[in-house]
Amino acid sequence: MNLRTIVVEDEKTSRDILKNYLSKYCPQVQVLGEASNVEEALVLIGNHELDLVFLDVEMPYGNAFDLLDKVGDRTFETVFVTAYDHYAIDALNAHASFYLLKPIDIDKLIEAVDYVREIKEKEQRLQNTVLAPKQQFTNGKITIPLQNGFEVMEVGEILYCQADDNYTRIFLAEKKKLVSKTLKYFEDILSVSGFARIHKSYLVNVNHIVEYRKGKGGSVVLSNGKEIMVSPSRKKELLSYFS
Length: 243
Fold this sequence. Notes:
Layout: E1 3-8, H1 12-25, E2 29-35, H2 38-47, E3 52-56, E4 58-59, E5 62-63, H3 64-71, E6 77-82, H4 88-93, E7 98-101, H5 106-126, E8 141-146, E9 149-154, E10 158-164, E11 167-172, E12 176-179, H6 183-190, E13 195-199, E14 202-205, E15 209-213, E16 219-222, E17 227-229, H7 232-239
Parallel strand pairs: 1-2, 1-3, 3-6, 6-7
Antiparallel strand pairs: 4-5, 8-9, 10-11, 10-14, 11-12, 13-14, 15-16, 16-17
């Protein structure tokens, strides 16, 4: 599929280099416009239905994070392009799909475009369809350690698990448990039972996912109404459960 994009970068030379690379190495990317500052970018975003935005961090009269705050809910993916690696954590917190350092490595650019394309293709296939995992894996039981022994719990009754330092909070429909095990521990034992790590702090039972939302960078809604953000690095893996 083609990816509709804009390039937001204050330096014309950098915009031209990126557009040239995209034209030569990523022909599936259609550049609909370019902007040199936040206000110009907001106009382009408002006038186009975009799949992807290439976004420099530092610009006149605001930065990339100011722009994303002003956009609010969004359905496009973002690829940050910057000369400064210290923005990486902020970019991840802003739900960037990829982070490219200048000078741009062509292989990394292709990797970023391919990653976004796969996400968009999966989202397109899921559009207007009822979410149903390809396989049902929630049979079985697990033991939850307690101070004076252990509790046996039905795997299928677990909606999601949330990290709490070296503890994990397990959420069921009617109750929750605090367990002295890390989220990684539960990820290891529940991954074969249809549980997906969608965020550094969340492990969800995919059979309890009732809705996937493209806005805000991607989120899922569970059967109890809980909405959980999906990390950009986990989005493709999650969508593979349904497409």
